[in-house]
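Hi support team,

I've been running sequence recovery on a batch of backbones for a student project. Most finish fine, but this one hangs at about 90% for roughly twenty minutes before it completes. I'm not sure whether the input is malformed or the queue is just slow. I've pasted the structure tokens below so you can try to reproduce it. Let me know if you need the job ID as well.

Thanks,
M.K.
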């Protein structure tokens, strides 16, 4: 009986070690993927939503919008596509806040598309996809925080989008603690997506 117990405990420890190593490996993949950015061109920059604070973008969302504006002004895209709904009726939608911010910073209104009903990354991408074909957009640079990029690109591929990662060059998540918290959350969400296909 004691020998059986030792074997069970040993097997459990091996499984836990394998799970921990797998988690660390996946987290490293997320970090590495988010740090890779090519000097690509596309028809549009597709900006994944983040919180809006009233009529202004939150610091996280502002960095994503600024990245898209920089892509437009550098001539790497012809359109900007903003996504994101609202947490409650009557509150400004993220997509509309992104559109207004971009126009205020020199992007022509005719070059901006937006949707205002999505609440998750999957919905951001699915709703944006419906905006692309009518104006001839076939390729997109996907704009989000670096640590969000791996999961977002996996979803974009599943939805049939011809997307290239364009992680933000600056981020609100600068401290080790904030980056660690973001990475921890993204790793679990990515595992959930890989195992269950959860469109979060």
């Amino acid at each position: 009986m004691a020998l059986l117990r030792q074997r069970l405990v040993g097997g459990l420890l091996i499984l836990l070690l394998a799970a921990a190593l797998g988690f660390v490996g996946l987290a490293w993949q997320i970090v590495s993927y988010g740090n890779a950015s090519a000097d690509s061109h596309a028809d549009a920059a597709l900006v994944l939503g983040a919180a809006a604070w009233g009529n202004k973008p939150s610091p996280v969302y502002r960095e994503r919008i600024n990245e898209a504006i920089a892509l437009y002004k550098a001539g790497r895209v012809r359109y900007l596509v903003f996504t994101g709904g609202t947490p409650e009726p009557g509150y400004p939608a993220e997509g509309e806040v992104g559109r207004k911010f971009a126009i205020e910073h020199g992007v022509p209104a005719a070059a901006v598309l937006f949707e205002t009903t999505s609440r998750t990354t999957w919905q951001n991408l699915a709703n944006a996809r419906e905006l692309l074909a009518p104006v001839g957009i076939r390729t997109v640079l996907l704009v989000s925080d670096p640590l969000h990029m791996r999961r977002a690109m996996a979803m974009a591929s599943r939805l049939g989008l011809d997307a290239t990662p364009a992680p933000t060059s600056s981020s609100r998540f600068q401290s080790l603690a904030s980056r660690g918290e973001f990475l921890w959350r993204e790793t679990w969400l990515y595992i959930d997506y890989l195992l269950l296909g959860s469109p979060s």
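--
Follow-up from support: It reproduced on our side and the slowdown came from queue contention, not your input. The chain has a mean pLDDT of 88. No action needed from you.
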